[in-house]
Design a protein that fits this description.
heterodimer, A: 616 residues, mainly alpha, two-stranded antiparallel sheet, 23 helices, 13 strands, 40% helix, B: mainly beta, 22-stranded antiparallel barrel
Chain lengths: 616, 1048
């Protein structure tokens, strides 16, 4: 009896011990519903679907950084509108920012994730960086992809990670460089890096991306010619040349005065070398500067071109009446009350040289040009840089659907019948105050012009690489120098870009010294890259030119139709007068905080180790 | 009989085994006899020992007989659970009859602890208990309310008096966690809902408070544990107990009616304050409200006391229970059936098919059987449960709607309904054939017409079924080593909730437009005609048993080894237990838990006590590495009064005991599950996205608790005094950290184990029993508890303004409140101009609140919102009772109170013309004027949207409209301390032979109980026990019942 009981006890204990060992199994349960971590990362199709959310996801999108417009409560603005380049015909959102109230821009630029606009650069970027880091960490888990497919994904992940960091840097200044998935036990309160270090981290990632693209044989995604040319399935995704070009851009920013506070020439040299490499690889892979006749294909009318190192076509815009177009096309063209338009200022128009290369930037410049018989203030649009016609709608320009653009007033102050300056009834805004409109991005798209235009965001194109190279070389080696091993001088590079537009080389009086040539490079960048994104906004900041520009006056050019018709003094029959824009459309530099956009307060409250930018 | 005798002998022989030799060694002679109770029934299993020779002993057999060898002149000690110890000198007698006196006090000498019972004297944990009897005597049919005030450290807050939905929220030792402070509730050792249990089935309720008592529950014990033990049969003749009581409930602390004349006059004042002069009511109109000039005008200018019109003064309530218990040596049984009914205070609508009243009836049943299968094998079967049927109307805004309408509808805006005569006076051209009463549309109203909502014919009947079943087998293994036993248990609990009947139609309703009547047009408008939904021919719908949320199935099983043995002065007990639990709650993925539990106790001569507890518990909610938590605790006790040096004073200082415990307990509660897994889903564009970052290290929250207890008794336990000092440090609480997650994390993360809180407190209990003489006994008792907590870590943004941080505040505090400056009101034009206002000067009038610029930065904005004193969870709780027994009379009075309690006191009480409604409450009438400087309310306003006062108040629900959603200190956040006469019971019992002969019953007891008879509070309106007095709740009830109890 006692023995049996002992057996019972023993077996009970064994059972208990047995259950103990399977203790963990009992609890080893997880829901079967939904996608598990391994579903996502072991199958190529799922992995790709996870990673490609960075381009086209519903919750965040990289396109927040593509050449940009902003939109907030029907108040459109672009970053160019915060500079002296243009004036928004509706002023609500942009003008307070332009005049030094940074708080009005915080939401529109960094946090607007409303479905219509989705320009929340800040929150989207960090979400995308997390996706990239997750992809990089999990790339080896894919079971069913080719080595090339994996290399491609990895390359894109490094590229996009660097791209987001860099785009945030351009607007917000240096940040922590987040190169891993921040988990529950990681330190979250990170300090910002030094600018140069930050840019170099971006450049390193761009280089890593380029290396992987190279392994994947994806220096470009489409064949250089023949079937599939400019029409790869992933044409809108970056490639190896894009990565090298972005590396060049990142190092150029690192070397620029705002970041390169000690004016370290080595940084310029690195930038020169990187841009030479990018240029070289671009040319080797069949990228060209389009002939000027096809220049506008880079922006509209065609999906992709051989000049775009990376671009995103938004497809055919069948209706002028959408948010995107409303940020570029003014009320008179769209008949939409909420449309705003980028209206070039006279300050910007003056950047277009005469066709023989005479600058018109300053009064002295213009006097010299007049003396040389190159320029007549009363016939100001004649014989200008050919790009002027591609960018600016000016008085009497031949405009499809409108004939000669009526951008003038009558002598009695009244507006002609077909005036493009007529305000919407009952409204005080919505038309140009400068007597110019901009058409580089949309061409003739309007209610009376073309109503169906393919629009493409040129994120980076070959012309910029020439100019990036020229700028770096000029600083490192002078106007006639070149990067080690390079066949192109700084002057050559600038002239290559000018030549395509039908412009002569930079006049010799400006190529003698780095200082003299620097101004022409800046002018060339403003002209060539205007309205394509926010090059100019960033350029004047990295050059630290923005304070002076912010303290200048903005002008328009009033055209008055003379009842007496053309005279010798007024050969066009119009009187042209420079005039300062009204006070509520002027620009200001409040303080050096304006170099960067601010983060919203609730974000700043979370980051103790991060030194915030000065508020403005 | 033979088998039984054999079993009894076998049982006895175990006791004798060890004792045999020594007994033989002494010169002893056999003594035999019989042990009976006061009624002459034999007592079985009474332990008999020879004093001074503890090893010598026997127990009585099934007929109460015993034989023992005892030396001449020895004294025998008889002891049995539930009876007073009895001693007897042998003195050469051979056949003796010993009568043992029942000792009801002694029943409480056993304390239910986790997975077992302990003798009270050797308990070292902080445990308090209440007997089922006192719950029955309370008169309350909801057990969660019946325990209120009776247990130190236990807070019960009842927020609604609605029949079937009047459970109290129970918290032990104060609120303690961000995620969940609800204690673990066990019924017969298994996690179960106890709120609908019949108090008649309950033997006792034990509340485990410190780490020593709760560590065995590991990751489920941190919030304290309530163990409900149901009754079991005692061996003896069948006893039948029948009770019936019935009475009335009436609502208490309801808002007072403000008549329509007063309302309209106040509205005029508000209009005037807002410069809306053209909208003011004229004197003629005002006089119509006071004295309508015609019957029709009485409808046009009504004065409706909604609560009075809608409700009766009383709702019926009824309780009945019959239970039978008893047992033989083979089986012991307890079986009980109970019925409870709580009726509606509403007049309601009842056409025989549709019944829109509130009511609740519940049938409880329980059968507990204990089988002595062999002398060492006990098999217990417990089967209990209840079926509750709840009926309630379905007002438009859901459950809270009816009270929203009653507390929110104006006395002045519309009458209850249009009586039939109206149609005769004012014919309806569109429906000329119509006759009879017409219901009134609540169109144009914010809150709706309560009468229409009640009469429109929508109701729901819900049936709620709970079944608890347990099968327990216990095998003593004394033949291996005495005191060893094993036990296995399987329990199944099921919960179903069905909607059994339901209608959802709206009877047509009407609006009589008096302006159109004046213009000679057809003034009637039927809601259905202007696009409102209604069904012309109401259909009675059988809801066909639609399963509701809350379906729940809980399977629990455990296996344990127990050891309990005394060696001289040394008593050792041990427990090792393994359990598993699977809970299937509705469509949730099942919850799995398992645990290994161990306990060892050591008791030296009831003097020095040591206890070690351990829980090793696992939950599927956590990451594989952190699934199991180890929760150890230890406790020591010193019963000073057992020391020799204490003897001189023990005569009056009967007991002095110190105990101290320290240990860890946890809580595995999580608002969200699978926190350790990243979840992925497809976004609207078809791309895969991560939903929230995983907390791969997720684990249980952890509480370190310490408790120092002092127990004292004086004058032979007539006066007792207990004190507990405790503290707790709880960390790893799961909290959302969105406020702390910097943007570059790139995603929000699931809750992290970061919350931290500390808490300390004190509990006092005292009781005094005084026996004046045999006929008169008096007693008084009370308890007091105080606890306070501070948040040590919460998700405050690192740079958050210090006065807006959660850290350093108590849990339940209001963080975004605004203080008033000075005396609180803008008292002059100068005041308006010299004070900082949240808006412009033209926004305010004299008498408006004067807000404090907390940051002193010259503007009043969000930054001035600051945390406010007080917490929703009162830190001070107390209860006291007293009573007397005189002959057959028994009186018991119980009070319960809370100190430093606050309520959210909003909208209906504070914003009289909220969204254009005309409802006023007493508080509005006390508005500030130069003549009423001690006002409790600011100037009245009508157009809430433009008023700064309103936007401070929480009037603006939507942040985008610019509201601050803040509380105003002292106004919308009010002190609600109260003391309540919770129960009074008076009974008279007849028993003894006369009753038996005359009535044929053993005892007859008649009683009267009263609950919530008096409430002492400074709160102007509403019940202070509530937490949120925003719209009003179904009122608390004052209940008076008379009953009779017959024992047979």
């Amino acid at each position: 009896m006692k023995k049996n009981a002992l057996h019972i006890i023993l077996s009970l204990l064994v059972i208990l011990a047995g259950t103990t060992s399977c203790l963990k199994e009992y609890l080893d349960r997880a829901p079967e519903a939904g996608l598990s971590d391994s579903d996502v990362f072991t199958k190529y199709a799922n992995f790709k679907s996870y990673f490609y959310s960075v381009y086209n996801g519903a919750n965040f999108t990289l396109r927040a950084h593509y050449p940009m417009w902003f939109h907030g409560n029907n108040q459109k603005l672009t970053l160019e509108a915060l500079t002296d380049m243009c004036d928004m015909s509706r002023i609500q959102r942009s003008q307070p920012g332009k005049m030094g109230d940074g708080s009005t821009l915080i939401w529109a630029i960094g946090y607007n994730d409303e479905s219509a606009s989705r320009t929340a650069k800040v929150s989207y970027s960090w979400k995308i960086i997390r996706v990239c880091n997750t992809a990089i960490a999990n790339i080896d888990r894919i079971q069913d992809a080719t080595a090339q497919e994996k290399e491609d994904l990895l390359a894109q992940a490094y590229f996009v990670r660097a791209y987001c960091h860099f785009e945030l840097f351009r607007l917000y200044g240096s940040l922590p460089y987040v190169d891993k998935v921040l988990g529950a036990n990681d330190e979250w309160d990170l300090p910002r890096l030094e600018d140069v270090e930050f840019c170099k981290r971006c450049a390193d990632d761009f280089q890593t991306a380029a290396d992987h693209f190279k392994s994947a044989a994806l220096m470009r995604r489409d064949p250089v010619s023949g079937s599939g040319h400019l029409a790869a399935t992933d044409q809108d995704k970056p490639n190896g040349v894009t990565a090298l070009a972005f590396k060049g851009r990142a190092l150029l920013y690192a070397a620029s005065p705002l970041s390169n506070t000690t004016n370290d020439p080595e940084l310029w040299k690195e930038a020169a070398a990187a841009n030479w490499e990018a240029l070289n690889q671009a040319l080797a892979n069949g990228y060209i500067l389009l002939p000027f006749a096809n220049y506008t294909n880079n922006f509209y009318g065609t999906k992709y071109t051989d000049e775009q190192l990376w671009a995103y076509t938004t497809g055919s815009t069948t209706n002028y009446n959408n948010d995107r177009v409303q940020a570029f096309v003014g009320y008179p063209f769209s008949n939409n009350a909420f449309s705003s338009a980028q209206c070039p200022t006279q300050n910007f128009v003056d950047k277009f040289e005469t066709k023989n290369g005479y600058p018109l930037n300053t009064e002295a410049d213009r006097a010299a040009a007049v003396a040389a018989g190159e320029y007549n203030e009363q016939d100001p649009f004649k014989d200008r840089d050919p790009r002027f016609g591609a960018v600016v709608i000016y008085n009497q320009k031949d405009l499809r659907g409108y004939g000669a653009a009526s951008l003038y007033v009558n002598e009695d102050g009244s507006l002609p019948t077909e005036s493009l300056l007529r305000k919407r009834e009952g409204s005080t805004d919505g038309v140009s105050e400068t007597f110019y409109y901009e058409q580089k991005r949309t061409g003739n798209l309007s209610s009376k012009g073309e109503q169906n235009v393919i629009i493409t965001d040129p994120i980076i194109r070959l012309a910029e690489v020439y100019l990036n190279y020229a700028e770096a070389v000029n600083e490192a080696y002078g106007p006639s120098g070149s990067a080690p091993g390079a066949s192109l001088t700084a002057v050559d590079a600038v002239n290559t870009v000018r030549e395509r537009a039908g412009m002569p080389g930079v006049l010799s009086q400006f190529t003698g010294s780095a200082d003299a040539f620097r101004d022409r490079i800046k002018n060339e960048r403003a002209v060539e890259l205007c309205f394509e994104g926010y090059h100019y906004y960033c350029d004047i900041r990295r050059w630290k030119d923005a304070p002076a520009i912010g303290r200048s006056r903005l002008y328009g050019l009033r055209a008055t139709k003379l009842s007496g018709g053309a005279t010798s003094a007024y050969p066009t029959g119009f009187r042209y007068e420079r005039f300062a824009l009204p006070e509520n459309r002027q620009i200001a530099w409040k303080n050096d905080g304006m170099y960067y956009i601010q983060f919203q307060t609730s974000d700043l409250l979370k980051m103790k180790n991060y030194t915030p930018n000065q508020t403005w | 009989m033979k088998l039984k005798t054999a079993l009894a002998i076998a049982l006895a022989s175990f006791f004798l085994m060890g004792a045999g030799f020594s007994a033989i060694a002494q010169k002893a002679s056999p003594v035999s006899g019989r042990v009976v109770d006061s009624a002459g029934e034999p007592l079985i299993g009474v332990a008999i020992t020879v004093q001074g020779a503890s090893a010598v002993g026997t127990i009585t057999d099934l007929d109460g007989n015993f034989t023992i060898s005892a030396p001449q002149g020895a004294t025998l000690l008889f002891s049995s659970l539930g009876f007073q110890d009895t001693t007897l000198r042998v003195d050469g007698r051979k056949d003796i009859v010993v009568v043992m006196q029942e000792d009801s006090e002694l029943l409480s000498e056993v304390v239910v602890v986790g997975y077992g019972v302990q003798k009270k004297e050797s308990v070292v944990g902080a445990i308090t208990q209440v007997k089922g009897e006192s719950l029955v005597n309370s008169g309350m049919s909801n057990i969660t309310n019946a325990i209120g005030g009776k247990l130190s450290g236990v807070t019960t807050l009842q927020t609604s008096g609605q029949p079937g939905e009047n459970d109290a929220e129970i918290i032990i030792r104060g609120v303690s966690s961000f995620s969940n402070s609800a204690p673990l509730v066990l019924v017969d050792g298994v996690e179960r809902d106890f709120s609908s249990i019949d108090p008649n089935e309950v033997s006792n309720i034990s509340v485990l408070k410190d780490a020593s008592a709760t560590a065995v529950f590991g990751a489920k014990g941190a919030n304290g544990v309530i163990i409900v033990t149901t009754k079991s049969g005692l061996e003896g003749k069948p006893k039948m107990d029948f009770s019936y009581s019935s009475g009335f409930s009436s609502p208490i602390n309801t808002p007072k009616h403000v008549d329509s004349y007063t309302t309209m006059s106040l509205l005029n004042t508000a209009m005037m304050n807002d410069q809306l002069f053209s909208s003011m009511a004229s004197e003629r109109v005002l006089s119509e409200y006071r004295n309508p000039s015609s019957a029709l005008n009485a409808l046009r200018y009504p004065d409706v006391d909604w609560l009075r019109e809608m409700t009766r003064s009383f709702a019926p309530t009824m309780n009945a229970n019959v239970n039978i218990s008893g047992g033989t040596d083979y089986v012991k049984y307890f079986t009980s059936i109970g019925y409870t009914y709580e009726g509606s205070i509403f007049k309601g609508y009842n056409d025989g098919k549709v019944d829109s009243g509130y009511k609740y009836s519940r049938v409880n049943f329980r059968t507990n059987l204990d089988f002595n299968v062999t002398s060492s094998t006990l098999v217990s079967i417990k089967l209990g449960g209840n079926v509750g049927i709840k009926n309630k109307p379905q007002p438009q805004d859901g459950d809270e709607g009816m009270w929203k309408y009653i507390f929110g509808s104006s006395s002045a805006k519309f009458p209850m309904y249009y009586p039939a005569w109206v149609l005769e006076q004012v014919p309806d051209a569109n429906y000329p054939q119509d006759s009879g009463d017409r219901l009134i549309s609540e169109a144009d109203q914010t809150t709706g017409n309560p009468y229409y909502q009640m009469m429109k014919g929508s109701f729901i009947e819900l049936t709620d079924t709970k079944v608890f079943s347990d099968l327990i087998a216990n095998q003593k293994l004394d033949f291996i080593t005495p005191g060893l036993s094993v036990q296995a248990k399987v329990s199944l609990s099921t919960y179903y909730k069905y909607s059994t009947l339901r209608t959802e139609y709206n009877r047509p309703s009407w609006y009589l437009d008096f302006t159109r009547l004046d213009e000679g047009q057809n003034p009637w408008r039927r809601t259905g005609d202007t696009g409102y939904y209604f069904v012309a021919n109401p259909m009675y719908t059988n809801a066909d048993n639609v399963l509701q949320g809350g379906y729940y199935l809980d399977l629990y099983y455990d296996a344990s080894v127990n050891y309990n043995r005394t060696f001289g002065n040394h008593t050792v007990t041990g427990l090792f237990l393994f359990n598993r639990q699977e809970q299937d709650k509705g469509s949730d993925f099942p919850y799995y838990n398992e645990a290994l539990v161990a306990r060892a106790t050591y008791d030296y001569a009831h003097k020095y006590l040591v206890e070690v507890n351990m829980g090793y518990t696992g939950s599927e909610r956590f990451s594989p590495e952190n699934r199991f938590g180890f929760f150890p605790s230890g406790a020591i006790g010193w019963v000073v009064s057992e020391e020799k040096f204490f003897k001189p004073i023990k005569k009056w200082f009967s007991k002095l005991k110190f105990r101290y415990s320290d240990g860890l307990v946890g809580s595995d509660y999580a608002n969200n599950r699978w926190l350790y897994i990243s979840e992925f889903s497809k976004d609207a564009n078809g791309y895969i996205v991560e939903d929230k970052g995983a907390n791969e290290y997720v684990q249980w929250e952890q509480a370190r608790k310490r408790d120092l207890g002092i127990e004292m008794a004086f004058f032979d336990h007539a006066l007792t005094f207990n004190m507990d000092l405790f503290d707790e440090h709880r960390d790893k609480m799961l909290i959302s950290v969105d406020n702390n997650t910097p943007m570059w994390v790139g995603n929000t993360s699931k809750e992290l184990n970061k919350g931290e809180i500390k808490k300390h407190g004190i509990e006092l209990e005292a009781s005094y029993n005084h026996t004046v003489n045999q006929n008169l006994k008096l007693f008084v008792g009370g308890n007091f508890s105080f606890n306070e907590n501070r948040i040590l870590y919460a998700d405050d943004a690192p740079f958050a303004l210090s006065h807006q941080r959660k850290i350093g505040t108590p849990l339940g505090a209001q963080l975004s409140g605004v203080y008033m400056a000075g005396d609180g009101y803008l008292s002059s034009v100068d005041d308006i101009h010299s004070n900082i206002l949240p808006g412009s000067v033209s926004d305010v009038v004299i008498g408006d609140y004067k807000f404090l610029d907390y940051t002193a930065d010259g503007i009043i904005d969000r930054d001035d919102l600051a945390r406010m004193e007080g917490s929703l969870y009162p830190p001070i709780a107390y209860g006291f009772n007293f009573g007397a027994k005189w002959k057959g009379f028994d009186l018991n009075v119980q009070f319960q109170g809370y100190g430093q309690k606050w309520v959210i006191y909003d909208q209906m009480y504070q914003w009289e013309f909220y969204k254009g409604n005309y409802r006023t409450h007493l508080s509005s009438l006390d508005y500030w004027t130069p003549a009423n400087r001690d006002a409790t309310h600011g100037a009245v306003h009508y157009s809430a949207s433009s008023f700064v006062n309103m936007s401070w108040s929480g009037y603006n629900e939507s942040a985008t409209t610019g509201g601050y959603n803040a509380k105003i200190m002292g106004q919308s956040w009010r002190r609600a301390d109260y003391l309540r006469l919770k129960e009074v019971s008076l009974s008279y019992t007849l028993d003894g032979k006369a009753v038996k002969n005359f009535l044929g019953v053993k005892s007859l007891r008649a009683y009267i109980t009263g609950n919530n008879l008096l409430t002492f509070t400074d709160l102007l309106e509403g019940d202070p026990e509530s937490k949120y007095l925003v719209w009003g709740d179904y009122p608390h009830m004052r209940t008076i019942k008379i009953g009779v109890q017959i024992g047979m």
